[in-house]
Amino acid sequence: MDFRIGQGYDVHRLAEGETLWLGGVLIPHSKGTVAHSDGDVLIHAICDAMLGALKLRDIGTHFPDTAAEFKNIDSKILMKKSYELVKQKGYEIVNIDSTVQAQQPKLKPHIPAMEQCMADVLEIDVDRVSVKATTTETLGFEGREEGMSVNAVVLLKRM
Predict the structure, then answer these.
(1) 134 labelled as ligand-binding?
(2) Range of the domain at 126
(3) Is the peptide bond before 105 cis (omega within 30 degrees of 0)?
(4) Coil vs helix vs strand at 30
(5) What pLDDT is recorded for position 65?
(6) Does the annotation list 11 as a binding residue?
(7) For the segment 58-115, what is each residue's pLDDT rounded down to a tens digit?
(8) Residue 110 annotated as part of some ligand binding site
(9) Residue 44 counted as an annotated binding residue
(10) Is pLDDT above 70 for 1?
(11) DSSP designation for 27
C-alpha cells in the first residue's frame, strides 16, 4: 500500500471580543482567535497536514488570507475543500492525531464534539480522529494566554 504522512502546525493570537472555534465547535471563552477566517487553529493545522502529505503546499496557498472570499469563512469549508484535493490525488485518511496547546480554556469537555464534527466534515469514522489538549504550564505565549497552537499528524493511504 502507498502511505503518506503529513505534519501540520498552526498558531493564532488570542484577543478579547473574538470567538473561539476549535475543531468546528464554538468554545465559550473570554478570548477568541484573531484571524482572516474564523481562526479555527485546529482545523488549519489538520488541513496543512493533509495537504503536506501529498506535497500540495499549505492552507495559505489554497485559501490566502489576502482573498476577500475567505474573510470570516467557516474553517469546516476549508477542511472539506482540502480533503477534496487529497481525494483528487487518489488518497483517503487513515487517521488524524492532533494536540492543542492552550492554557485556557479547559478543552477536555469539548473534545468529543470536536472529534465528531471533524469526522462528519471529512465523512470518516470518529475513531479515526484524535484530539488532545495540553497546557504549557504557564510557559510561552500559550501559557501567557496570548495565543494557542496546534500540532497535527495525518496518515493517508492510496484508495
Answers:
(1) yes
(2) 3-158
(3) yes
(4) coil
(5) 87
(6) yes
(7) 999 999 989 899 998 999 999 999 999 999 999 999 999 999 999 999 999 999 999 9
(8) no
(9) yes
(10) no
(11) P
CA 25 to chain centre: 11
Least confident window among 18-32, 41-55, 63-77, 97-111: 63-77
| CATH code (residue 119) | 3.30.1330.50
0.70 cut: is pTM over it? yes
Report CA-CA distances (Å) from 32 to 5, 16, 127: 30, 6, 28
Tell me whether residue 135 is annotated as binding: yes
Q: Is 62 annotated as a binding residue?
A: no
Q: Is 10 annotated as a binding residue?
A: yes
Q: What is the mean pLDDT of residues 24-35?
A: 97
Beta-carbon contacts of 15 under 8 Å, excluding residues fewer than 6 positions away, are: 31, 32, 33, 34
Structural domains in the chain (count) = 1
For the chain, give the mean pLDDT.
97
Q: Given the C-alpha cell 479547559, which residue does it identify? A: 106
Q: DSSP secondary structure string, 59-105?
A: HHHHS-TT-GGGTT--HHHHHHHHHHHHHHTTEEEEEEEEEEE-SSS
